[in-house]
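Lab notebook page, bench 4
Experiment: in silico fold of construct C2
Operator: M.H.
Input chain length: 630 residues
Purpose: comparison with the prior construct
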Amino acid sequence: MVSRSTPLSGRCGIELLAPARDLPCGLAAIDSGADAVYVGAPRFGARARVGNELRAIADLCAYAHRFWVKVYATVNTLLRDSELDEAVRLCRELAELGVDGLILQDLGLLRRELPDLPLIASTQLDNSTPAKVRFLEQVGFSRVILGRELSLDELRSIREASAIELECFVHGSLCVGQSGRCHLSLARGGRSGNRGECAQPCRQRYRLLDGEGRELAGGHLLSLRDLDLSAQLGTLLDLGITSFKIEGRLKDEVYVRDVVGAYRLRLDEELTPRGLRKTSSGTTRLGFEPRPECGFNRGTTTYFLLGRSSSIAEHRTPAMLGEELGVVRALRGRTIELSGEVQLTAGDGVCWFDRDNLLHGASVLAVHGARTTLERVEGLELGDRVWRNRDQAHRKAVLAGRSVRSIEVRFSLLVEPGALLLCATDEDGLTVEKRLAYAWAAADHPSDAAATLERQLRRTGSSGFSCSECQVVSAVMPFLPVSILNGLRRAALEDLLALRLRARPRTGRAPCEATARSPLATVGYEDNVLNREAEAFYRFHGAEVVEWAPEAGGSLQGSRVMRTRYCVLEELGRCRRRSPELAPLGPLTLVDERGRSLRLELTCGDCGMDLVELGLLTPAGSDAPGGEDR
């Protein structure tokens, strides 16, 4: 399978952006067709568990840049005053390693001397309105990562208001709360999502109680399905999205290969008829058939992109379900028959829900035609749906199928008296020449000599180049030893790679407008000021900071800890705007398995809900305003 698209030597192409948990995942993403990768720095990343050593980031940059693939580093947590100097040093070290951009959340960093790199506004900045995006453009950001919850109309309004690059999530896990404004994890255990330590309490079980204490529903009521916008890529292109982002810095190499490969193929199908081009170079040849539905997913949704809809959550489990296989049509002991056409193999994993909606799983022990024997069948009944959450054959195919990415090069060999001149031109129009003084002789068998010459020039091996054209300019076909041809080819490709690294497109930091005014008149705890520099930033741009971030200390009791466009009543079919005949339910409460409560406040005018913490928990280890170091 071959993915081809014409590269663009500049910034205005279209970018497929992939996650890199570590160096192997980053290399896999590049080989699978990514135009850019984002990677966690050693500290201050929104995924604290997947920070990478600087040496690994340097190695990733070295490999990426031969294809003009960009590497973005995440430094996107809130920072305390005591951490600002270290964060700035880290940004400078990352620049020296060759990263192409910095993903930031803390606006206090904009008052420091950062390296001359493009700044990318993390989705943790809650980039969801035209005014906010325009302001970030004015203060020096080159790109904003948009909120996942936005609709097409909202994206269009943002695009019309600003010329900044727009990065949009198209695949992966969803946060139920607005990014950067969710403090549920902090309230429930002192682990702040804005500090890279989210414990995902939204994936836990809850009971929904009405005003009389009656249980209306139970389950994983805040757990969303996974985003899949693969069918909307063309629409997003037409709207003006710059970068298409795959979520997954906690995912493994198989996930990265599979999803990136699938989106590379799908995106190229949309680029070609529109005359659009990707930002990187090279042709990717996948060694497997991408099937993202076989990998990690909780079921999929387009979220609110196409408008409000039900079935955006999976209340039964936050775990991976995988590929739906069909329903049980026969059950004898531990042997089942399914209605679907999918062929299982020994070692696969399957799962199902029992009549109480509890998830069960089992390994496949044996397959005999339509009959499959499982290691256990507890809770499984006739008519139950079954999913495959481990596809052994596909996983092996992804790992074994070597994907190759190469840059096309054209060779032209000019044979002169006593010398050879080899010209190598890559797909981006870069050319090098290698001259070799050599007293060649005419070939006794010209056709054989020509075949040998072309064969050796095309043997580019693991150089990262592939020969698309080979031309010999000579009055007489020369006889050239294989060693001469190989040495000339290797030298030319080494020079061409060095030239590519020098010539790769690079941009610096965007200018800042000193007169830019914050769209916020007052800055509260949800706007995430955790250091004096951030406070000074807002004050300089016309806003008054009235409250610091909750990470600075104090209680969140009685405070809103999440705002979300998701509405649990709408998901349950009990929305009174859609069905006015439904009786009012009174005050609503979500209660977790430890008895901790959240007051649910419906924001029906905007179709959403707020969650207010009713427990009492003071975050530990914080720097409070007014202290020695806030």
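Observations: The domain at 306-390 is CATH 2.40.30 (Elongation Factor Tu (Ef-tu); domain 3). Residues 424 and 432 are 5 Å apart (CA to CA).
Next step: discuss at group meeting.
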